[in-house]
């Protein structure tokens, strides 16, 4: 298959972790990959365009460059994310605004930029959500709020654009070993998460829409000791 015939995928945040694994998996499946990264990995195979996802203008310009070069777009994966895990009383307003921009608003601006091309290709938009969007925790206000908003955005996209041939899917994973050197058996590997995402993109029947899928680590850590059971560990 020539590069002009290969399906085209655009992914945000491929310089590390799950985004990098998704890019590699799609390349192995024959996709031509392009990336929007704020910090560049410097690898030609990622097809990187420098883009600060907090800036809608940069998103529009970078997507325009990709479409001009590729001539089409079959897949878009909104993966890039920022995290600040501070209690509300200590959460800086600038950190809140940045997380809303990168984790939620960037997905909206990305959809707006790629939607005409996805309609033409009858393609798919995948957003990486999180269990944090429905399982809240202390210190997670900004992260959880943006992931909950992302769920609403993707579901609405699916309702509106399915009639135009565009599929939309929210992938909501639990704990992922996203950091280099993290080999915890209680987290999913980035390769496993990527395989799940790319199977939805590339291997599921075209007359079937996966609106949302939740994935969890297969192994559980020991639960905290509570109640009278504490007496067994004094």
What Rg do the Cα atoms give? 19 Å
Mean pLDDT: 93
Number of domains: 1
Main β sheet profile: 7 strands, parallel
Helix/strand/pairing class, anyone?
A: alpha/beta
The number of helices is 5
Q: Helicity level, as a percent range?
A: 25-40%
Number of distinct beta strands = 7
CATH topology: Rossmann fold
What do we call the CATH homologous superfamily?
Answer: NAD(P)-binding Rossmann-like Domain
CATH class: Alpha Beta
CATH architecture: 3-Layer(aba) Sandwich
Low-confidence stretches: none
The order of strands across the largest sheet is: 3-2-1-4-5-6-7
Describe the structure in your own words.
The protein has one domain: NAD(P)-binding Rossmann-like Domain (Rossmann fold). The termini are far apart. It has a seven-stranded parallel β-sheet, sandwiched between helices. The protein has five helices and seven strands. It comes from Microbispora triticiradicis.
Question: Topology of this protein?
Answer:
Blueprint: E1 8-12, H1 17-28, E2 32-37, E3 48-50, H2 56-70, E4 75-78, H3 93-121, E5 124-128, H4 141-161, E6 167-173, H5 190-202, E7 212-215
Parallel strand pairs: 1-2, 1-4, 2-3, 4-5, 5-6, 6-7
């Amino acid at each position: 298959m020539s590069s002009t015939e290969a399906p085209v995928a655009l992914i945000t945040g491929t310089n590390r972790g799950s985004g990098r694994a998704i890019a590699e998996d799609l390349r192995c499946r024959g996709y031509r990959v392009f990336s929007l990264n704020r910090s560049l990995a410097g690898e030609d195979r990622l097809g990187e365009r420098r883009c600060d996802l907090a800036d809608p203008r940069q998103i529009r310009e970078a997507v325009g460059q990709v479409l001009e070069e590729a001539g089409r777009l079959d897949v878009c994966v909104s993966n890039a994310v920022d995290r600040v895990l501070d209690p509300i009383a200590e959460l800086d307003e600038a950190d809140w605004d940045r997380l809303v921009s990168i984790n939620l608003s960037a997905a909206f601006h990305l959809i707006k930029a790629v939607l005409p091309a996805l309609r033409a290709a009858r393609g798919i938009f995948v957003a990486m959500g999180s269990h944090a969007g429905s399982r809240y925790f202390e210190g997670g206000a900004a992260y959880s709020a943006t992931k909950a908003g992302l769920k609403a955005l993707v579901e609405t996209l699916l309702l509106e654009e399915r009639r135009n041939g565009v599929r939309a899917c929210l992938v909501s994973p639990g704990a992922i070993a996203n950091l280099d050197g993290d080999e915890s058996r209680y987290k999913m590997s980035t390769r496993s998460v990527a395989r799940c995402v790319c199977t939805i993109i590339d291997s599921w029947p075209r007359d079937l829409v996966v609106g949302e899928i939740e994935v969890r680590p297969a192994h559980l850590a020991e639960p905290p000791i509570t109640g009278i059971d504490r007496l067994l560990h004094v």
